C-alpha cells in the first residue's frame, strides 16, 4: 500500500472519529409523562349552566424541568397558551412557546411577582379593597386512590369581601372559594409544572393578606403532588346575585420513564419577550404617570407595551392588563382551578 493511500485512510478514520466526538449525545433524565385536564362548570345567576375545558394536554417532567404540550385551550377560561403551543418550566421561570409564530413569552416568577403587584397598585383609575379575609385549612384524611397511589385529602376555604372600581365600573361582592386537594406522596421527578407559580405572593396590594394566609395554609399540606383538585368559587354581588364556578384539574395516564432533556429546552432561534420585565417597566411608567398627574391635576393614562404587533406580544400585553384587573394572581388562580401551589 502506498504511503499516500495509507495517509488517506488514516485521515478518513481520524475524520470519522472527530465527527462522532463532535456529535452531541442525547441526554435522558428519569421522569414521568401524564395527561392533564382542567375543566369546569359555570352556573350563572339566571340558573344557566355551561361546561367548559380550560386547558388539556400531555406533560413530561423531571426533577429539573417540565413541558406541557397544549392540545385544547380556552384563553377566556384562564389557559396560558394556545392549542399547538407548549409551556416550559424550571424552578425559577416559565416560558410559553408558540411554534407557529416562533416566539416565546418568558417570565421569572420573581419578576412577575414584583411587577404584577406594583402594576395592580398603580393602574390609573382602579381601586381595589379586600376586607374580612378568612382562610381555613382542613386535613380530611385518606382520599380515594388515584393513579395507583394512595392520596391524602385537604381542603382550603377562602372568604373575603371585594370592592373594585375601574373607571366608571364598580363591583362589590362576597367571595367564597373552596379548594379540595388530593395529594399523592412526593416522587422524584414527578412534578407539577405550575407549582411554583401558585406560591406567588405580591409584595403588597389589596390581595396581599389573602395570598399570605392562603400560602401559609397550603404549606401545611407538605411536599406531596396534587393529582386532582376541585375548586368551587361562589361570588355574590351586592344585589344578591350568585355566580358559581366549579373547576377540576386532574392528572391521568401517569407513566414513569426517561425524558429527553432536549425537549425541555426552548428553541434558540425563537424571539423572546420577557413579560416579567415588561410588567415591571409598565408598573414604573404607571407610577411615574400617577405622580405627574397628581402634580398637574390631570388624570393619568395606563401604559401598555409600545410594540404589541405579534400574537405573543399581544398576549403579553393582555396578560399584564388582565393581571391588573384581576389584582395580580387571584384571577389566574381561579381560572386554573387551584392547580397552582408551591412545591
Strand content: 35-45%
Query: In what order do the strands lie side by side in the largest sheet?
Result: 7-8-9-10-11-1-2-3-4-5-6-12
- The total strand number stands at 12
Percentage of helical residues?
25-40%
What is this entry, summarized?
This protein is of the alpha+beta class.
Describe this entry's structure for a reader.
- The protein has 343 residues and is α+β, with helices and mostly antiparallel strands.
- The protein has one domain (28-335).
- It is 27% helix and 43% strand.
- It has a twelve-stranded mixed β-sheet with strand order 7-8-9-10-11-1-2-3-4-5-6-12.
- β5 (93-98) and β6 form a beta hairpin.
- α2 packs parallel to α5 (275-296) and α2 (109-122) crosses α6 (311-325).
- It is globular.
- Mean pLDDT is 75; it is low at 301-343.
Write the topology of this structure.
Blueprint: H1 3-22, E1 28-43, E2 49-62, E3 66-73, E4 86-90, E5 93-98, E6 103-108, H2 109-122, E7 126-146, E8 149-166, E9 169-184, H3 195-198, H4 208-219, E10 225-237, E11 242-260, E12 271-274, H5 275-296, H6 311-325, H7 329-335
Amino acid at each position: 500500500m502506498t504511503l499516500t493511500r495509507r495517509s488517506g485512510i488514516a485521515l478518513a478514520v481520524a475524520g470519522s472519529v472527530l465527527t462522532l466526538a463532535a456529535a452531541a449525545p442525547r441526554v435522558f433524565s428519569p421522569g414521568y409523562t401524564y395527561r392533564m385536564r382542567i375543566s369546569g362548570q359555570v352556573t350563572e345567576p339566571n340558573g344557566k349552566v355551561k361546561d367548559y375545558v380550560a386547558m388539556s394536554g400531555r406533560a413530561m417532567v423531571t426533577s429539573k424541568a417540565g413541558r406541557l404540550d397544549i392540545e385544547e385551550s380556552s384563553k377566556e377560561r384562564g389557559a396560558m397558551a394556545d392549542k399547538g403551543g407548549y409551556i416550559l418550566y424550571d424552578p425559577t421561570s416559565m416560558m410559553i412557546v408558540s411554534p407557529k409564530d416562533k416566539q416565546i413569552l418568558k417570565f421569572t416568577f420573581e419578576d412577575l411577582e414584583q411587577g404584577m403587584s406594583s402594576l395592580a397598585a398603580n393602574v390609573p383609575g382602579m381601586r381595589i379593597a379586600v376586607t374580612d379575609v378568612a382562610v381555613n385549612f382542613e386535613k380530611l384524611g385518606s382520599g380515594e386512590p388515584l393513579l395507583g397511589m394512595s392520596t391524602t385529602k385537604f381542603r382550603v376555604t377562602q372568604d373575603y369581601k371585594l370592592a373594585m372600581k375601574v373607571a366608571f365600573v364598580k363591583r362589590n361582592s362576597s367571595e367564597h372559594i373552596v379548594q379540595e386537594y388530593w395529594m399523592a406522596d412526593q416522587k422524584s421527578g414527578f412534578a407539577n409544572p405550575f407549582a411554583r407559580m401558585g406560591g406567588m405572593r405580591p409584595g403588597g396590594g389589596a390581595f396581599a393578606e389573602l395570598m399570605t394566609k392562603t400560602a401559609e395554609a397550603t404549606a401545611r399540606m407538605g411536599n406531596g403532588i396534587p393529582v386532582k383538585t376541585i375548586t368551587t368559587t361562589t361570588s355574590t354581588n351586592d344585589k344578591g346575585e350568585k355566580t358559581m364556578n366549579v373547576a377540576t384539574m386532574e392528572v391521568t395516564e401517569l407513566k414513569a420513564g426517561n425524558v429527553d432533556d432536549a425537549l425541555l429546552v426552548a428553541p434558540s432561534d425563537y424571539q423572546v419577550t420577557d413579560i416579567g420585565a415588561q410588567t415591571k417597566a409598565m408598573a414604573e411608567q404607571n407610577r411615574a404617570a400617577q405622580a405627574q398627574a397628581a402634580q398637574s391635576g390631570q388624570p393619568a393614562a395606563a401604559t401598555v407595551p409600545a410594540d404589541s404587533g405579534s400574537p405573543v406580544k399581544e398576549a403579553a400585553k393582555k396578560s399584564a392588563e388582565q393581571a391588573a384587573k384581576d389584582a395580580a394572581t387571584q384571577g389566574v388562580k381561579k381560572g386554573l382551578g387551584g392547580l397552582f401551589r408551591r412545591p
